[in-house]
Specification:
With about 240 residues, the chain is α/β, with parallel strands linked by helices. The chain has helices at about 15-25, 70-75, 85-90, 95-110, 120-125, 130-140, 170-185, 205-210, 225-235; strands at about 5, 35, 50-55, 80-85, 110-115, 150-155, 195, 215-220. The protein contains 9 helices and 8 strands. The mean pLDDT is about 95. It binds phosphoenolpyruvate.
Length: about 240
């Protein structure tokens, strides 16, 4: 299965949610799955498309002011949840251990986690990116006891919201390395896990990224706020 995931972050599409969803839903045919991750209060406004939360709590319920549980996301119609996004890790200090607990609780509640992993520029430049990504995967997998689908999004931190995207070659090589780590460190059932790419993907650079034929889709931030741009990225993936 391949995916086009729109991460609106703390933004709304200027064209309005209803118009945005209508434009995308009209294109949601036999291609990769279209998933939209709006800010929490707008989950129920997403129509005709799969819905993702942008995060969930690591606990099931209780006195955790400002948190949203995996069960609540399910109740509001989400089938997916983005976990371990680099903005959560770097701006909000989320640790590998917390992300592992979130992954486990998301799966327990029937959500498909979209687990984000990615290295910063120091790690990339020092040649340690693949080992770093393997460690992030291992740490996340350590919390999982339930079955269920998992989607992985490789998102190099140096490419998120910076306008600097990975080359098609780097993206393909790293995706292969991530798959190999999944095979080694995760249970058998995750062997066919989809690996998406995210980091300043636009209609202008998408062709180079898909050319190597390795990635299973995209997690898109900035360009996903415009239905026309997001659809252009989605269409570059071709039919399922
Ligand atoms: C993201 O938020 O996951 C992302 C990849 O953002 P952008 O496309 O804006 O780099």
């Amino acid at each position: 299965m391949r995916y086009s995931v729109a991460n609106w972050k703390m933004n709304l599409p200027p064209e309005g949610i209803a118009a945005y969803c209508a434009a995308l839903a009209a294109a949601a045919g036999d291609g990769p799955r279209l998933v939209v991750a709006p800010p929490f209060p707008y989950l129920h406004e997403i129509r005709g498309l799969a819905v993702a939360g942008q995060n969930c709590a690591e606990k099931a319920s209780g006195a955790f002011t400002g948190e949203i549980s995996a069960a609540m996301l399910r109740e509001r119609g989400a089938q997916f949840v983005i976990l371990g996004h680099s903005e959560r890790r770097t701006l909000f200090g989320e640790t590998d251990a917390q992300i592992a607990r979130k992954l486990a609780i998301a799966l327990e509640n029937g959500l498909t986690p979209i687990l984000c992993i990615g290295e910063d520029l120091n790690v990339r430049d020092s040649g340690r990116a693949e080992a770093f990504l393997a460690d992030q995967l291992k740490a996340a997998a350590a919390g999982v006891t339930n079955g269920g689908d998992v989607v992985i999004a490789y998102e190099p931190i140096w490419a998120i919201g910076t306008g600097r995207n990975a080359t098609g070659k780097l993206c393909a090589e790293t995706t292969q390395a991530v798959r190999e780590s999944v095979r080694r460190f995760w249970p058998e059932r995750y062997e066919n896990v989809p690996v998406l790419y995210g980091g300043s993907v636009t209609p202008d650079n998408v062709t180079e990224l898909v050319a190597e034929g390795e990635i299973d889709g995209f997690l898109v931030g900035g360009a996903s706020l415009d239905s026309g741009k997001f659809l252009a990225i989605h269409r570059a993936l071709g039919k399922e």
